[in-house]
Structure formats: C-alpha cells, structure tokens
Amino acid sequence: MTNRFRFRLTSSRVIILGFAGVIILATLILMLPVSSAEHTYTPLINAAFTATSATCVTGLVTYDTATYWSPFGQAVILLLIQIGGMGVVTVAIGLSLISGKKIGLLGRSFMQDSISAPRLGGIIKFTRFVVVTALSVELLGALALMPAFCGRFGVKGIWYSFFHSISAFCNAGFDVMGKSGKFSSFTTLKSSVPVNVIIMLLIVAGGIGFATWNDIKTYKFRFRKYTLQSRVILITTAVFILVPAIYFFVVEFRNMSSKDRVLASLFQSVTLRTAGFNTVDFSSLKGASLIIMIIFMLIGGAPGSTAGGMKITTAVVLLFSSFSVFSRKKEVRISNRSISDENVKSAAAIFIMYVTLFLVGGIIISLYDNIPIDKCLFETASAIGTVGLTTGITTSISTFSKIVLIFLMYVGRVGGLTLIFAAAKSSISASKLPLEKITVG
Description:
two-stranded antiparallel sheet; two-stranded antiparallel ribbon
C-alpha cells in the first residue's frame, strides 16, 4: 500500500466503504434461494432494502422477517444487525485482536472515529471493552427473555430470545415472531411485564453509548466524575424517555388497563431512541402523537452507541447555543464548561442536513407514490433516524421510493458529516477573509 493511497484512505472513507461493502455482499446472499423460506430468488431491490435496513440497524422491512426468510436468511439478518450495531470497523478490528494481529496507528485512528472514542490513547483496550460489553449484555438479555419466550413458544423461544436481545441492544427493531396485521407481533406482548422491561433496558443500554458505559464501569455511582458528555447523555436520555411517556399516558391508550397503559407509554417512548419495536397499532394514534414521535426519532440516541439519529448531544449543544444567544453570552456553556465553536457549527450542520433529507425524502415519496405526506414524513424520519417504526406503508411503496429510503437509512447510519468528510478534500488555511455582518432574526 503506497503512502499516497494511505493518505487518501481516511477514516470517513473506510467507514462508508465498509458499510457499503457489507450491504452489497449481504444483498447478494439474501437474493439466493437458500435465504428465503420458499427457496425462491428474492428481487434485488427487496434484498438490498433488507440488507441495508439490517446493516444500518433500522428495522424497516418489505417482507415479514418471520415468514419470508428461511432460518439461514434470518441468521444472515441477525449477523448484519450485530455488525451494524457494533460498527463495521469495530467488528473488523475486534476479529483482528482475537486472531492476535497487531493494530497499527492507522487502524487505531479508524477505530477512534468509528466508535466516537474521546481519545486515541487506550483505543485497543476500549475496543475490547466495546466487544465484551456488547456480547455480554446481549447474552444476559437473551437469558432473561428465555422464560417468557420459551413459555410462550416452546423450544423456538431460545432462538427468539437471542434474536430479539441482539436486535434490541443494537436498536434494530427486527422481530421474528411474525406480524399482527401490518404491525410487529410485539403488539401481542403489550401486557407482558418481563418482556417489556427487558427489551426497554436493552434498548437503553445500547443507546447511551459505550463511552458512557466505560464511565459507569470506572466511576460506578460517582456521577460527578463522569465526563460532561456522559452526564449530558444520561440526563437527557432520562428526560427524553420521561417526557414522551407522560404525554402518551395522558393523551393516548385510554382504553387500556392501568398496567398496560403504563407499559405502552414507556415502551413507545423508549423505542423512539431508534429501536423500532412497537407494542401498539400506530394507526390508532393521534396526528400530534406522530409529530412528537418524528421529533424524537430524528434526535435518536447517543454518539458512539448502537442508536442512530442526529444524536442527543447534537440537540443539547443546539439548545444551549440558543440559551447563550437569549442570555447574550459570547460562549456556549454547559455545566460550567464552554463548548467550542467547532462543536456548535457541526451540530448546526448535522441538524440542517437531517431535517433537509427527512423533508425532501418525504415530499418525494408523497408525490411519486401519491401517499399522504404525514405518513411519508413518518417513514423518512424513521429511515434517516434508523428507527424502523412505520405506519404500514413500507411494503406498498414503489421501487423508487424504496431506493430513497435505502439512501436515507445508509446516511443515517454512517452519518451525514462522515459522507461529506469522505467526499471533501482536506484543506487548512490560515488566511481570513474580510469580516462582514449580516442581520438575522
């Protein structure tokens, strides 16, 4: 490998090429007759859609995962969920560590960007922590789900337990229990306290990020010693779960028992962390509820986690940036710390990118397939936020609209800025242009 090629192979390009390579290979495998339950060839667009949705841990599907795909096809989907949740680079370097290979500086740099690690030092140790934590939590989740699933489905419940534990921790939203009408058969489990609680805990565990878990492991309950990012993530996650849950409890699900109403409200709030499972029929929800869900789907989870979206930290930085303007302060402050202008600009760019793609994608699908705009916007928010929730239109949209959703899922997983940095040439200039003031507001 020449130095020139090494220079061009940036971490951003490795990430997008890694995800693209996995999706292409998975598409070819899912097209094969061995991957479908009927042993027939799967059309290219639907195989590509499923491969993208699984690798990008989204959960939108064109075929029912339980009935269309064979056990081999389901295993491929589960492997893609695991790779997508942990990250292509993380999995590749994890396998290298297991095989005893040494990781050079370039590989460590790729790893740092892949998992949003705060520093390059100790990255190999942190990678081991990521892999061990992910696999351990998924195993514990599967064991905890087994009594409920085996009691309901017999021996098949073992497979269900492992599949849904991995799918929940990776915030993927795929299920292999079949559909109840247009919606996930988790709607039949809305009264099961163990299943609801375990799935919610797995979703939150995957969505707060491995750096946060590292702080929890290191400092235990000494919250003040956590990094500012970890504290922001934990506090904001709690708020973003509690607020929608209270709304759902007050406004929706009034025909349920008190227990089911509490479970449904909490579950629908937690799943907006980009998990994609649902225990209620979304066609019964009010329009205002769908708008609130769109907002929280776009925000998503924490950076360096299995969750997607524009990220909690992005929303917090923009919020405190607004506070600084309102209070006429020259710098953005969070918990007695100032936030760099670079962070604020990046947060603004990510926000504009996500909102633009979400709106443009929804408008395009609505015009092309003549579907109500509210359903299309819900679908595009779910796609770019890698959530996987749907109002039921995924299976009926055209090939062109599926391509739009594939693009949105891909951008949502690898990150908009990653794509831009991969395409742009790095340029550093010390010169400054003359300053000009433009009146805004």
